[in-house]
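All the exercises in this workshop are built on plain-text protein records. The record below serves as our worked example for the rest of this section.
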Amino acid sequence: MSHVAQQRFRRHRIEGIGDKHVPWIHNVRNTDLVIAIDDRDVMSLIRLFNEPVGQDYLKTRGIPIDIIEQLPLMGISSIANMLQAINLPNIMN
């Protein structure tokens, strides 16, 4: 469960809405769902997408080189959002 939802604070590396920071402009009545993403998972993907050994692994898995070359453009928040999108169908069932 999200630390925001539990009203607890914890250190993390994902910037944006999170522990101790929900912008005043954010209307919580428009929030349908909060999905917790572990920043360790995000940092693992950052390494996979950016380090040569990780990119070589992706090549062995059949990921097209043009996609692999674009992955380093994703930052921490982008990868967290991607993981949330992947988890959403499981949560909605």
